[in-house]
Structure formats: structure tokens, C-alpha cells
Amino acid sequence: MVDVKVKSRLVGATAKVGRHGHPQLVSETGGELDVMTSASIPGFNPLDLLYSSLAACLVLSARIAASRMGILEKLEEVSVHVTGQKSAGEPARVENFDVKFELSGDFDAAERAEIIHKAEEICTVSNTLLAMPTIRIV
């Protein structure tokens, strides 16, 4: 049996915005990102970041799934595209997430389906969204 050691990583982010301009994000590890809210400026808005978090988690989870299934060597690339539909009324929220997986590699249909199913089970972000977590203002 393989002894897997997991190294913990600081997680979290701080957003700041002034009277004018765009929000800036800083991760606990020092990563920085400007948030763009104008429709004409390229960049990430808050919903893009939500969709990006789910997409990134699912591609990583698909790779983990293929590894656990013993078929990682067959994996060439995983791509996940996430979009969604925002509610028409209040409260403002995303009502549906549309997730499209693309797996490159020598997989049969059953292996592809299993990787996708296991990726959703593994993904912390999808599990969190499904669980409707409590948000505590501290």
C-alpha cells in the first residue's frame, strides 16, 4: 500500500475595492487577481470566478479519478467548461450549472463515464455547492 502524505495549503481570499475602480483579490498564499465588472473589459467577474473554481476542481478531480482507477497513463488532457443560468428574480443566485467534460485519451465510453462520475464525487467545490453550506459573517 502506498503511503500518501498530504501537505496542507493555506486557503482563503480577501477582496478590496475603493470608491472607484475594480475589486482586487489576494489569496492567503499571495496570489493576486483584479476583478473586472465591466462587460467590455476582458477578465474575471465574480460569476466567472465561481464557474472557474468548479471547472478547476473538476479537472483536478478527473485526474485523481483516472489515477485511482489505474488508467492515468491513458489520460492526455481533461477540459471542463462551466456556465450557468442566473436567477431571474431575488435572491440573485445561480440556479443551474452546466458542465461539459472533454477527456482526451484512449478511454472507452464506460471509463469516460466513470472518470466523470468519480470526479464529481471527489471535487470539493461541487460537493460544497451541493451541500448548501452556511455562510457565517464573523
TrEMBL record:
Identification of the protein by name: OsmC family peroxiredoxin
InterPro entries to which the protein is assigned, alphabetical: KH_dom-like_a/b (IPR015946), OsmC/Ohr_fam (IPR003718), OsmC/Ohrsf (IPR036102)
Gene3D superfamilies linked: 3.30.300.20
